[in-house]
UniProtKB/TrEMBL annotation:
Name this protein carries in UniProt: Probable enoyl-CoA hydratase echA8
GO biological process: one example: fatty acid beta-oxidation
Enzyme class: lyase
Gene Ontology molecular function: enoyl-CoA hydratase activity
Family: Belongs to the enoyl-CoA hydratase/isomerase family.
Keywords: Fatty acid metabolism, Lipid metabolism, Lyase
The keyword Repeat belongs to this UniProt entry's keyword annotation: no
Organism the protein comes from: Nocardia coubleae
EC number(s) from the headed UniProt entry: 4.2.1.17
CDD domains: crotonase-like
Function field: Could possibly oxidize fatty acids using specific components.
Catalytic activity reported: a (3S)-3-hydroxyacyl-CoA = a (2E)-enoyl-CoA + H2O; a 4-saturated-(3S)-3-hydroxyacyl-CoA = a (3E)-enoyl-CoA + H2O
A Pfam family per the record: ECH_1
InterPro entries registered for this protein in UniProt: ClpP/crotonase-like_dom_sf (IPR029045), Enoyl-CoA_hyd/isom_CS (IPR018376), Enoyl-CoA_hydra/iso (IPR001753), Enoyl-CoA_hydra_C (IPR014748)
Length: 264
């Protein structure tokens, strides 16, 4: 297992070559997991490793009890010029997480602000502790969301609430976030990690090609017309009939036994 400066990477299960969960913990406690360039480099390397690893079927990204992540690192950005930001294409590297092909779960406790909220929204499922707080406070710093907040938050919650959050910079509690569609499930804080692990293990126990195509199909709905999206879904659905796992899943149903998927 690789060592990183700003994150912890673990593998849970998967010793028989499938069904494992990649577990990434943001680990900059003194800065409330603020997202600097090193965090991005570490997460990118970890995701590359987990994408290559056939034993991994899902990934959980989490932070600490106090903060999932309190945003992009303000101290790192504070003195940058326009040209610094433009030439470095600051934050573009986070597309690696949004485009990761296996299912991802954000397990969020405490603050998920600014870039922290945006990173959580890049994940496929967002499970939140009852302590979680979400917000896009960039306006208070004289800037705007820069890692997808104005787009992903708006798609999740609609224009009125997105404007409210982004223009006032206020925090949103977990109940509001669930009602608005940012959060998949709320759990008591002491059950957050177990719940996220259980959900990830459930996903990882499915056929990996089916899970990857399910993710791709849902994500396609944000990028295309209904007709094109339906066509994409149908083609993906048809393609799964080329897998052993489809034969196994349907045979197992008929034979009233659990399926044994082989990701083939
Ligand atoms: N960046 C750097 N350091 C941070 C950050 C951050 N985002 N958040 C917290 N820290 C540091 C604090 O500076 C402090 O360090 P130190 O002890 O050295 O002073 C330490 O973490 C602990 O923080 P606090 O003492 O402030 O802890 P509190 O419990 O009092 O407060 C809060 C917690 C409310 C979360 C508070 O820390 C806070 O408001 N943080 C900033 C939240 C924020 O504004 N996030 C948005 C950042 S910008 C962004 O993410 C969008 C990116 C797009 C920008 C586009 C630019 C082009």
């Amino acid at each position: 297992m690789s060592e990183f400066e700003t994150i912890l990477l673990e593998r849970k299960g998967g010793s028989d070559g499938k069904g494992g969960v990649g577990w990434i913990t943001l680990n900059r406690p003194k800065a409330l997991n603020a997202l600097n360039a090193q965090v991005l480099a570490d997460i990118t390397a970890a995701l590359d490793e987990l994408e290559r690893d056939d034993s991994i079927g899902a990934v959980v990204l989490t932070g600490s009890e106090k903060a999932f992540a309190a945003g992009a690192d303000i101290k790192e950005m504070a003195t940058k010029s326009y040209m610094d930001m433009f030439l470095a294409d600051t934050f573009a590297g986070w597309d690696r997480l949004a485009n990761f092909r296996k299912p991802t779960i954000a397990a969020v406790a405490g603050y998920a602000l600014g870039g922290g909220c945006e990173v959580a929204m890049m994940c496929d499922i967002l499970i939140a502790a009852d302590t979680a707080k979400f917000g896009q406070p960039e306006i208070k710093l004289g800037v705007i969301p820069g890692m997808g907040g104005s787009q992903r938050l708006t798609r999740a919650v609609g224009k009125a609430k997105a404007m409210d959050l982004i223009l006032t910079g206020r925090n949103m509690g977990v109940e509001e976030a669930e009602r608005a569609g940012v959060v998949s499930r709320i759990v008591p804080a002491d059950q957050l990690l177990d719940t996220a692990l259980e959900a990830a293990q459930t996903i990882a126990s499915m056929s990996l090609p089916a899970a990857m195509l399910a993710k791709a199909a849902v994500n396609r709905s944000f990028e295309t017309s209904l007709a094109e999206g339906l066509l994409f879904e149908r083609r993906a659905f048809h393609s799964l009939f080329a897998t052993d796992d489809q034969k196994e899943g349907m045979a197992a149903f008929t034979e009233k036994r659990p399926p044994n998927f082989t990701n083939s």
